[in-house]
Amino acid sequence: MSVAQWRVARVTPLGEFAQPARITGTAVRLAAQVFLVVCLWRSLYSQVETSAGLVRDQAVTYAVLAVLALQIRGLDRSASRDTMLQHIQEGTVLYWFVRPIPPRRYYLVRAVGDQLYGFAWVLVGYTICLTAGAVEPPASGSAAAAFAVSALLAQVIMYQLLLAVDLLCFWTLQNNAALTILRFLQNLLSGVIAPLWFFPDWFLTISSVLPFRYTLDVPLSLYIGRSPLSDTPRLLAIQLLWCVLLAGLTRLMWRKAAGVVTVQGG
Amino acid sequence: MDAIIARDLTKTFHTIARRPGFVGGLKSLVAPARIAKTAVDGVSFSVREGELLALLGPNGAGKSTTIKMLTGILVPTSGEVRVAGLEPHRDRERNARTIGAVFGQRTQLWWDLPARDSLAILRDIFDVEAEEYRRRLAEFDDLLGLSEFWDSRIRHLSLGQRVRCDLAAALIHDPKIVFLDEPTIGMDVVVKEQVREFLRHQVEQRGRTVVLTTHDMTEVNRLAERIVLINHGRLFFDGSLTELRRQFGATWQVHVTLADAPADVAVPGLRVLRRDGPRVAFGPGDGATSTHEALRLIIERYAITDLAIEENDLEDVMREAYLHREQMTA
Amino acid sequence: MGLVWRITRLNFRAVLEYRAEFMLKVAVGAAWQISVVVFATVLLTRFPGMGGWATSDVLLLASMRLLSHGLYVLLLGRVTWTHIVVQLGQIDAFMLRPMPVYRQVQLAFFNVNAVGDLLVAASLFVGAVLVVDVDWTPARIAYLVVALVGGVLAEGAIGTALGSAALHAPATAYWSMWLDELMTAFGNYPLHILPGLVRDAFTFVLPLAFVAYLPAAVLTGHLETLAVPGWLAVASPLIGLLAYLASRLLWKRSLRAYKGYGGT
């Protein structure tokens, strides 16, 4: 990573550090969210032992990790006027095209910086939750390894999906609504709203053929040991496949998006 | 040596026409009706190294489209562009290192970072050496007074402060050629003057080539050596301010009060516009004459007790020029 | 009132101009509500007897909350956009017009999402009312209606209070959004499944309990599961009204102290 890339990657974290109130805000929000999620799932399990093949601690661990994982799904940059949509609406995206770093790489480096920053939050949150007993350690050593690989691939898929949604802004300036629906689908189908195991079978089938599940549910299920280890190669292969497919798609979209600016004038 | 060459530059945009109503909307989806709009139409001009060129024209004339083509953001539909010998849209990254740009009120700085951090990021993106960066920053600070506010985050800066930072950001990599699309829009007079001084310094001391669009005629008056006028996508004037005045605004009036009132007042080369006893108003005759020349001619012939010169200001000249162009196209 | 109706109609017509966008926005509202419904159904089928309530009782609670939320978004919801109105500088323009600023904020645009919200909420509500084991006497029906209005007002109170804060610090929008998420996540369940402290916070700090939980407890006869006295639960609609009036006072005071935004 060159100095320039390092500088670019730091933009969002630096902006956060410049405003301690935001950091406190994130901490408070995260703590409250985790606490409430733990309360909710524990009380739900007060009557039953096992549900959908998950025991209480598995469900709680899944739900808490999902809350933490939201921190690395791309920070909300709208307060910093730094989302793709804002840059396109305000026309500041022009500057991306008069710098000696290609817009594609600039976007990637920014995203990597954001996600590393989010990852720091996850690590701290995870350590606290683990110590406090809100989450269980991984089901086994091999589960931990499978989780690590799967989580990395999940992050790549996540990046591609966010990028694809962002790139859509080049065509649908007004279409906030479409973007909202996509984001919502991501949350519903990836297990953020509730662990996917609780949903009916048809729902699981649908989510298995879409990429969203592979951004969160798959690594978390490996972590808590709900997905058998023997299933790991298959799951990782599907994740890899999505990485490749989406990378191809976003590549194409970038080329077209650049065309929107350079041919149609944005 | 020409820093910028534009030859027969043309840009046509294709937009999809919306048909009214729901059925129309569906129709547009199936068989979109494309409308071609030519924003820039065969514009040719060149800019010498170290020259400050004002690109002027009414709103929607095609100035910004031209600037976007010169900066390599837009690909021309036809025609040729050379900026410092490069074709901007083909060689975007190399071109980016030789040019700097400010697009009106749009800032390229990061909203939540102090201005100085933003400049440091750009320094690294453009590979500026540390020593050079320090020197340049000091120079910019000297001219623009940046240090008063460069530790504040961009979101807390006033418009004038932000644009000054943006100017510094556009010049941090020492570009030979600078494009400024309405940089002083919405600024107060003091800041405007500071920015003009800065630009003058960049052109005269640093030898930069500057292309400027603006609607501020005082700015044009103070800064521009050469003016290019565009309207409806076509270039219709390219020359100096004096030439522009001669062509579109040679309507000065010299009011004199004669010491003794002869029956017949006439000065060769001048026209008598009005006469009211000893008070006479002269205007330019057939051969365009400057006010100095006119004064000399009048004083040679008559003894005068009072004198006033009324010259059309640049805004009048521009209005005349824009309207003139409208008539030609009509 | 005629004026309010006319402006609303114009706003509605304005959003109808872009039909695709309109349908998408309706879909967003519906999708959002459906996700809540899905989540609730998942929980209800997997974990029957939540907090000692029958599944249909929880369903009634959830549907009351969703319906009053939908109505709130339609009728009073624009107040949560105060921060944007402030940032765009529109509030200054509103102050120059001979109409209360609050009403102008409410009339700023037509929130299409609410249509989707309401569609889903209304169907769920009808289903829940039919399924739930409650003898629908005229008195109970009347109470149900009053409770819904109270729910709208209670949520309006929260929104208006946050809007008042946004008049001075648009950054509070961050917290409003979070509170909205919290209320969506927990408003649909019997709050006593949460630890006492949290339950009390959702009752006395953030009056979420009065929106649907307490009135639903009254209707389904679960007063004994509550931590508050029965009369307080019955008086929920009144509390909603009082909270709303108080929030309007707060708004008025905040507006008087409005200092403008940006432009240093």
What is the helix/strand order of chain C?
A: HHHHHHHHHHHHH
State the secondary-structure class of chain C.
mainly alpha
Name the shape of chain C in a single word. globular
Count of extended strands of chain A: 2
What order do the helices and strands come in, and which of them pair?
The complex is a heterotrimer of chains A (266), B (330) and C (264).
Chain A: H1 3-9, H2 11-17, H3 20-44, E1 50-51, E2 54-55, H4 56-69, H5 84-90, H6 103-132, H7 141-168, H8 176-190, H9 201-208, H10 217-224, H11 232-264
Antiparallel strand pairs in A: 1-2
Helix pairs in contact in A: 1-6, 3-4, 4-6, 4-10, 7-10, 7-11
Chain B: E1 2-17, H1 21-30, E2 33-48, E3 52-56, H2 63-70, E4 78-83, H3 92-98, E5 99-103, H4 115-125, H5 130-144, H6 159-171, E6 177-181, H7 189-204, E7 209-213, H8 217-223, E8 226-231, E9 234-239, H9 241-248, E10 253-258, E11 270-276, E12 279-284, H10 291-301, E13 304-310, H11 314-329
Chain C: H1 2-16, H2 19-46, H3 55-75, H4 82-87, H5 90-95, H6 101-106, H7 113-131, H8 138-168, H9 173-186, H10 196-205, H11 213-220, H12 230-234, H13 236-256
Helix pairs in contact in C: 2-3, 2-7, 3-7, 3-8, 3-11, 8-13
Question: What characteristics describe this protein?
Answer:
heterotrimer, A: 266 residues, mainly alpha, two-stranded antiparallel sheet, 68% helix, B: 330 residues, alpha/beta, Rossmann fold, 2 domains, 6-stranded mixed beta sheet, 4-stranded antiparallel beta sheet, 11 helices
Can you give a write-up of this model?
The complex is a heterotrimer of chains A (266), B (330) and C (264). Chain A is mainly α and 266 residues long. Chain A has one domain. Chain A is 68% helix and 2% strand. Chain A has helices at 3-9, 11-17, 20-44, 56-69, 84-90, 103-132, 141-168, 176-190, 201-208, 217-224, 232-264, and strands at residues 50-51, 54-55. In chain A, strand 1 (50-51) and strand 2 (54-55) form a beta hairpin. Chain A is globular and about 60 Å long. In chain A, 42% of the residues are buried. The mean pLDDT of chain A is 87. In chain B, helix 4 packs parallel to helix 6 and helix 9 (241-248) packs across helix 11 (314-329). Chain B is 37% helix and 29% strand. With 264 residues, chain C is an all-alpha fold. Chain C has one domain. In chain C, helix 2 runs antiparallel to helix 3, helix 3 (55-75) packs across helix 8 and helix 8 (138-168) runs parallel beside helix 13. The termini of chain C are far apart. Chains in contact: A-B, A-C, B-C.
